Write the structure tokens for this entry.
Amino acid sequence: MINKSELNLLRQGLEKLSEGFSELPDFSVDMDESALATVIDAVAERMQDNYPYFHPQYAGQMLKPPHPVARVAYAMSLWVNPNNHALDGGRASSAMEKECIVELGAMFGWEELLGHLTGGGTMANLEALWVASRLHPGKRIVGSQQAHYTHSRISEVLGIAYSSVAVSSDGRMDVAAVESLLQEGDVGTVVVTMGNTGLGAVDPLTEILRLKDKYDFRIHADAAYGGYFGLAGVLDGDARSAFDDLGNVDSIVIDPHKHGLQPYGCGCVLFRDPSVGSFYKHGSPYTYFSSAELHLGEISLECSRPGASAVALWATQQLLPLKPGGEFAAGLDASLQAARDLYTRLEASEFFTPLMPPELDIVIYAVNSVSTSDASKKARQLFDDAAAAELHLALIELPVDLASGWLRDFAVDSASVTCLRSVLMKPEHKDWVKRIVALLEGCVA
């Protein structure tokens, strides 16, 4: 779990950092090391009451360990504790954030853009939908039934009407249903999910983009989970087409704290048209006095934001450039291959029935049973039994009409069915799939 070389790197970094402030008069802060040690020991003990998110046998929710360089850079920056609201609070970290935004935008082919980091995908999506509502006032937001629940909640907060549309059996947005709503003339924005968090399905962006030739609406891409996969070399099929077209949308949300190897919370919102920054304009005479340059607080709904997030992301992107064929992209490929391997092994198992083939790195599967209600019961039991064997999974409750097409040998006797869900976000999962399946089968047997 702990690599002591990271602690050595942190010490070296702090020594280098302190050199930049060596001309200041000395001062010290009183610290009772014994009291601190007692509290830190208590914190460490309390923190043991967690699932082992960092380990390959954790294959449950979207929890990916930060890269060591992100951990060290984040921790080192805390000795300065910059605030990226105004340049006064974080000159170096604000510059780093701007550089990160340029590199993130370049992933989608955007050379001129507006963007900033946020506390997470929820805040990033809120900003995107807020801007959308200013450009299409009074018009509806549309997303799929498998879109993240925050879109409907954000719309309610913003006072915008929201409609969800059906998904096909593979969990992707139904394009015909979208067009039917567009024909009503009151849709301002369609939210396209580039990998929904429940199923990992990628909405058919290419087809939805074609609708813009007939209707006036914005496309917002919620790529909080899947945004980096455009760099993957082994991405194929409809997902590949969708990611190839991602640069044609109006706004994108991506979460570096998911596949970007960052600590929580680090989200990001990007706008293809920088002129939308005019909607953020406000006056705050006490925070913007040190420079005539752009303060990130001038293009953000959030005020105080941790500069540490920008420092960690900048360090990671320096070490692992966001380029196809690079080391970062290879990690994404490993996750995709792990999911495909798990799907294939589950398909061959006598104990499980996988649902839709994975487009990204999420696999959904049911425990074989005579009925959907009994399958749900068995899934919940397996969840507990696997955890006892130190294999940690997740559960997902699906409408039976979505799942039944894949569960053809199950009698339908319930409105929903509980399935197991594994997110293989860690590149190391590629080498652990065989063991994971063996543990699963052992628990069922």
About this structure: The chain has two domains: 91-319, 327-444. The longest strand covers residues 416-423. Residues 366 and 419 are 5 Å apart (CA to CA).
